[in-house]
Amino acid sequence: MPELPEVEVVKRSLQKNIKNLTIKKVEIKDNKLRYRIKKKKIELTVNKKIINIKRRSKYLIIELSGGISIIVHFGMTGKFFLSNKKKIKKTSFYYELKDHLSKHNHLVFTLNKKIELIYNDVRKFGFIKIVLTKHINMSSHIKFLGPEPLSSNYNYIYFKKNIINKKTTVKDTLMNQKFVSGLGNIYVNEILFKSKVIPTKKIQLVKNNEILKIIKNTKKILKLAIKKGGSSIKDFRNSEGKLGKFQDKFKVYGRTGMKCMNIDCTGVVKKMILNNRSTFFCNICQK
Q1: Would you give the end-to-end CA distance of the chain in angstroms?
Q2: Is the pLDDT of residue 52 over 50?
Q3: Could you report the per-residue pLDDT of 202-224, keeping only the tens digit for each?
Q4: Of 2, 5, 147, 149, which one is the catalytic site residue?
């Protein structure tokens, strides 16, 4: 599933390619997503101008004229393709052009300049919803989200205040979208390794200096991941067909049995299942 950096890359790609264009027509090819696509709702987008594309957590928000917005969640395999009738190109990094099988197309937005924005989703866990822009923050998907990890609101005071009386592990806390939004399994593993905190540590036992390290490394790692174009797990690629580069920076994720990448450490990377998620950590560094 795309995490914050990958969705941010999608956002920037769409800003570059479709901002200020107008939706001329919309066609439902298959309405079976996590939530069924409603014809009357989706047709409200016709003749609306694309004012802006934003990201909140792992959600993409396409703001249109007329006071309506499109909320998109990619689920496991959701993706956007852009077509100008002559060729199709990607808008993000986590798939290849060969993945564009039309039988998995669910929605086709025809824009001016003969451009089509195609939503494709093999496993159908993603969704697309139309909402009033003024009600975005009250949407059931948005209103309970914690602060953006790259914002100033995600700081030591916030962190310390919101772990009082919690009994979860530090990993589960960081994965909780109500605590901090946008983090997923890949980046939480990397953040905790960089901070030298073992994922199973109870959040109440995390020391003040460790909290500061977690916050600092969260921001550092996410910024680097965005700069590198996200992580190419399996087939994550950008709109120009280039692989995301952050997977080359992985220190623990997917490195089971390999030597710890900290120079002064003799440990090896271990794998365990924590709350049904593959969890990677150094058996010596992280405490």
Answers
A1: 28
A2: yes
A3: 999 999 999 999 999 999 999 98
A4: 2
Catalytic residue (one of 12, 48, 58, 196) = 58
Say whether 277 is catalytic: yes
Choosing from 3, 8, 63, 190, the catalytic residue is 3
Q: Exactly one of 89, 124, 270, 277 is catalytic; name it.
A: 277
Q: Is 3 a catalytic residue?
A: yes
| pLDDT-derived band at 234, boundaries 50, 70, 90 | very low
Domains in the chain with CATH codes: 4-138 (3.20.190.10), 156-281 (1.10.8.50)
Q: Which pLDDT score is estimated for 243? A: 44
Q: Is 245 a catalytic residue?
A: no
